[in-house]
Amino acid sequence: MALRDRPSPNHGPRPEGTSVDILVLHYTGMLSAEAALDRLCDPAAEVSAHYVVEEDGTVWRLVGEGRRAWHAGRGAWGGAQDVNNRSIGVEIVNPGHEYGYRPFPQAQMQAVIELCRGILARQPIPAGNVIAHSDMAPARKQDPGELFDWPGLARAGIGLWPATDARGTAWDGGEAQVAALLARLGYDPAIASFTETLIAFQRHWHPEALGQPADAETVRRLHSLLAQSGR
Questions:
Q1: What is the DSSP string of 59-115?
Q2: Phi then psi for 165, rounded to 5 degrees?
Q3: How would DSSP label each residue in 164-198?
Q4: What DSSP character marks residue 20?
Q5: pLDDT confidence of residue 168
């Protein structure tokens, strides 16, 4: 992993006594890596991330992990209402859904794996708190999206993926059961509709069902993830 420094001025102190326990993965959603880096280092933009991973695997360190980067924005996960306070943010170069969303190259994914392994070795982040930007902000974010290799990360020991042989409880056919399971996993029902939250879940953990109604497989996958995370 090629690590380079490009300091961003856009950061601040973490609240005293706050532990880092969330890792948020984003895509840049811009036309080029350079445009993304320029924006994340522009004081007027007031946004940043701790790291940026280019498509060729180059990793840029913008903000030290001990500082509060400005990457997450409005949202919540697992009861945390200010995710920036307690998270590390990694921006992964990809034009995103607006500019020609495409698969993430292998060199880039390998760099993400190596970077995340290092972060998890330094920070007490549970597997259930390795999330997508869209998980904490389902109503306004789609990244890093359904083409991101979440199963590959889980195989590398980063985050969670539903077990193929896991069994869930019977699905009663209603939204309430699914909504309750989504909330247990970490989604905040107060910040997005059920449909928006379900789509965020699908982008991360059930991409082949993206945009489809909840079903028994949704419930099975949720139970598998909850069992793995101990929630």
A1: EEE-S-TTEEES---S--BTTBS-GGGGEEEEEE---HHHH---PPPHHHHHHHHHH
A2: -105, 10
A3: TT---PPP-SSHHHHHHHHHHHT--TTSS-HHHHH
A4: P
A5: 66
Cβ distance 65 to 11 under 8 Å? no
Query: Residue 2's pLDDT is what?
Result: 81
Query: Percentage helix, strand, coil, to 5, in the chain?
Result: 35, 15, 50
Residue 54 bears catalytic tag: no
Q: pTM of this prediction?
A: 0.96
All structural domains of the chain with their residue ranges: 1-161, 162-230
Q: How far is CA 15 from the centre of its chain?
A: 22
Angle, alpha carbons 211-214-217 (nearest 5°): 110
The CA distances from residue 208 to 3, 156, 205, 226, in Å, are: 34, 21, 9, 20
**Cβ contacts of 81 within 8 Å, gap of 6 or more:** none
Out of 91, 175, 208, 217, pick the active-site residue. 91
pLDDT number for residue 98: 95
What pLDDT, on a 0 to 100 scale, did the predictor assign at position 138?
98
Regions of the chain short of the pLDDT cut 70:
166, 168
How far is the C-alpha of 3 from the C-alpha of 21, rounded, in Å? 23
- pLDDT for 124 equals 94
CATH architecture of 1-161: 3-Layer(aba) Sandwich (3.40)
Do you know the residue count of the chain? 231
